Amino acid sequence: MKQRGKTFRLYIRGPNACFTRPEMKVERVSYEVPTPSAMRGVLEAIFWKPAFRWVIERIDILKPIRWETIRRNEIGTTQSPRSDYLIVEERRQQRASLVLKDVAYIVHAHQELTGKEPEDNNIKKLMAMFERRTGKGQCFHRPYLGTREFAVTDFRLLEVGETIEPIDQSKDLGWMLYDLDFSNPKNQQPLFFHAVMENGSVCVPPPGSEEVKR
Q1: pLDDT value at 91 more than 80
Q2: Residue 110 lies in a domain
Q3: Which partner for 76 in 80, 93, 102, 129 could form a disulfide, CB atoms 3.0-4.6 Å apart?
Q4: Of 182, 10, 29, 198, nearest to 100 (Cα)?
Q5: Please, are residues 16 and 150 in contact by the beta-carbon 8 Å criterion?
Q6: 118 or 106: which carries more pLDDT confidence?
Q7: pTM of the predicted model, to two decimals?
Q8: Is 194 domain-assigned?
C-alpha cells in the first residue's frame, strides 16, 4: 500500500470555467461540474514534485450551475513550418463556447507517494510545503478552471472545523472524463467514470479502481 498524506480541502473560485467535453469537436461545451483531471491541474499549479501525485477524492459544488455563451474569433489552422506567414483574415473562424459562470468549489484531495524521488519521500514534509504555499498564495503558475483563459481568482485551504455547504442538488451526470493514462507517452488514453452529484458533491473513485473505464 502506497503511503499517503492527509486529506486537504482546497477552496477555489473564479468568474468562469470550462471543463471541456471531449466529444465536442468544434464548439467548446463544458461539463456541469469540474473533472478530476482539471482539479488535479489546479493542485499541481500550486505545488507538485515527482515524489508524489495528487489523488482527488471529492468535489463540492458551492454555487448554482449557471451558463454563459462566449463567442470569439479563432484561427482554423496552425502555421506550417514551411511558411513564413499566415493570413489571419483567410483562416479566421467564429466559434462559440458554452461555459460555466460564477463558480466556486471545494476540492478534497491527498498526496500519494510515487517512489520516484526516494530522498524526497517524506509525506509530512510534502504536506507542510503545500500548506505553506497555499497560506502565502504562492503557485508555480496561475491555476485555471479547465482552460487557461479562466484563471482561479482565489484559493485557500479550509481551516479545521470550517464548513461551507454545497448546493442542494442531486443529478446523474453520466460518463465524465476522469484523467489521461500517461503510462504510454506516445499513446495517451482517456479514462472515464460515471459521475453522480449527490447533495452538491461528486465522489471520485480512486485511480485503478473498477469504476474507472477506458
Answers
A1: no
A2: yes
A3: 93
A4: 29
A5: yes
A6: 106
A7: 0.89
A8: yes
The closest of 68, 36, 182, 189 to 116, measured between CA atoms, is 182
Mean pLDDT value across residues 177-188: 85
In a domain, 209, yes or no: no
Whether residue 76 is predicted with pLDDT greater than 60 in this model: the reply is no
Give the CATH number, domain containing residue 175. 3.30.70.2660
- pLDDT for res 89: 59
Q: Would you say residue 98 has pLDDT above 60? A: yes
Q: Tell me, what's the pLDDT at 153?
A: 97
Q: Which three cell numbers stand for residue 136?
A: 502565502
Q: Is the pLDDT of residue 88 over 60?
A: no
Cα 177 to the center of its chain, rounded Å = 11
Position 1 in a domain: no
Spatial CA neighbour of 100 closest among 167, 1, 192, 190: 167
**Residue span of the structural domain in which 154 resides:** 8-76+86-203
Q: Identify the burial level of 171 via C-beta atoms within 10 angstroms of its C-beta, where 0-12 means exposed, 13-18 middle and 19 or more buried.
A: middle
Q: Tell me how far CA of residue 196 lies from CA of 17, 37, 136, 200, in angstroms.
A: 19, 16, 34, 9
Spatial separation of the C-alpha atoms in residues 63 and 12, rounded to whole Å? 12
50-76 burial by CB neighbour count: b if 16+ within 10 A, else e? ebbbbbbbbbbbbeebeeeeeeeeeee
